[in-house]
Amino acid sequence: MEIQQIHQTSANMAPSVFQLSGTCNNYPWGKQGKASLAAQLCAQTPGTDFKLDESAVYSEMWFGDYPDFPARVLSSGELLSDVLKTDKEQLLGKKVLQYYDGQLPFLPKILSISKALPLQLHPNKALATKLHEEDPGNFTDPNHKPEIAVALGKFEVFAGFKPLGEIQPLFALQPLKRFDPSPGKWDDETLRNVTRELMKAEFSTVKEVQTQLSHLSRSDLPSEAGYILNLLPRLQDQYGPEDAGSLVTLLCMNYMVFQAGDAIYIPADGIHAYLSGDIVECMARSNNVLNTGFCPPADRNRIDLFANVLTFKAHSRDDVYLPSQTYDKSKNGKTVVYKPPMSEFDMLKADLGKGETEELTANEGPGVLIVTNGEGIMKAQGEEFEMKKGYIFYVAPGVNLRWESKQALQIHMAVI
Ligand SMILES: [Zn+2]
Predict the structure, then answer these.
(1) Which residue intervals define the domain Phosphomannose isomerase type I catalytic in the entry (predicted)?
(2) What pLDDT was estimated at residue 3?
(3) N or C end of the chain, less CB within 10 A?
(4) Alpha carbon of residue 253 to chain centroid
């Protein structure tokens, strides 16, 4: 009798590992047609109605349970969020039920970036809650959204502030003197106000300053700031000479160029603008953002709020970089983990050479993985799954995974 009951329960249980399909969006900073890795990966999942259109721009593929651009269970076409509701205990686990409201606490994406994303920050929880109450149309959830980005190739980014000692000398330059309220005596509040004034400057002023800046020669600038003269025309090309985003990013923020496998962490209230490349991004379950530059003027109506909440936690390149670490649940050492200083998620990256295998012991929480390169086989719960570039899988808590590579295999996986 008992045995029969157990058998019946397991027969009714949803599978613990299943394939998903993601959803692409088309923001104007994305890459064209099949040059977009987001679109390429999205197109790999068989049996969906996604057709890659060469004339379209593809910016992001999302594959979480957030209502915008949601993931679906491939076999049934059902929304992942609906399927998770059918058995939260099994599919999300106790930890998620207890601490994260019974929803997937992270949101993974692939981004393909051809030009600067809006200069932005994601508000902290208290502010997000307030904004969501006041303006639920624009702030669709009450959550914070710290995020990480793992480069899949060359990745250019502006993130966090430079050390004050690198910013101040730039504002001693003739074109920028007018923005320097206290020459030689800056602290973070000075930087906050300078950022605010740059963003609030008249279009004509911004244009004048950018034109004067572009006439400087490399020898006029401190040696570590020479890149500003290379990037200014590129940003002007993308957003025109009247966009203050170019001044804030080039003068005040760290500019970094990363390679595949490098990762960054952006805390809540952290200023950032990704510039180019293909990345895996993962964030807390939220879509709240304040934009101030590299976007239409109508989207920049909260400059004071933006300036007021800015965090100065990241004040150098090293503060932004998120190094990978060995992953203690990996049996064969092919997997590293990126651990942002927050509780919602970690990101795993597995790299297997030809014929290699990797085994991961089970997690307490759920995971979502995407094959970012190569092909192979996944074994889990006595079942085998074909893995190809672009395939996305949901993995319930308590499931041991075994991956076997054919030629090569790379997997990125968000876990709790
Ligand atoms: Zn962001």
Answers:
(1) 17-164
(2) 42
(3) N
(4) 18
Q: Could you tell me the distance, in angstroms and rounded to a whole number, from the CA of residue 274 to the centre of ligand 1?
A: 8
- Cβ(249)–Cβ(158) below 8 Å: yes
Q: How many angstroms separate the alpha carbon of residue 388 from the centre of ligand 1? A: 28
Q: Which of 251, 237, 273 is nearest to 178 (CA)?
A: 251
Both tokens of residue 262? 């490098």
| Token digits of residue 21 | 């399909």
Distance CA(329)–CA(365), nearest Å, equals: 13
Known binding residues: 120, 122, 147, 272
Q: How confident is the model at residue 12 (pLDDT cuts 50, 70, 90)?
A: low
Q: Residue 5: its pLDDT value, please?
A: 40
Domains of the chain: 103-322 (2.60.120), 325-415 (2.60.120.10)
In the three-class reduction of DSSP (H, G, I as helix; E, B as strand; rest coil), residue 265 is classed as strand
Of 6-15, 105-114, 253-262, minimum mean pLDDT range: 6-15
CA of 146 to the centre of ligand 1 (A): 8
Strands 290-293 and 147-151: unpaired
Ligand 1 centroid to Cα of residue 149, in Å, is 9
User: What's the gap in Å between 43 CA and the centre of ligand 1?
Assistant: 25
C-alpha to C-alpha distance for 283 and 413, rounded to whole angstroms = 13
For residue 391, how far is its CA from the centre of ligand 1 (angstroms)?
25
Q: At 187, phi and psi to the nearest 5?
A: -130, -170
pLDDT of 7: 39
User: Taking 60 as the threshold, does the pLDDT of residue 146 lie above it?
Assistant: yes
Taking a C-beta distance cutoff of 8 angstroms, is the pair 213, 244 a contact?
no
The pLDDT value recorded for residue 250 is: 98
Query: Known binding site for Zn(2+): residues?
Result: 120, 122, 147, 272
Residue 13: band (very low, low, confident or very high) from pLDDT cuts 50, 70, 90: low
Rounded CA-CA distance 398/393 in Å is 15
Lowest mean pLDDT among 90-104, 218-232, 397-411: 90-104
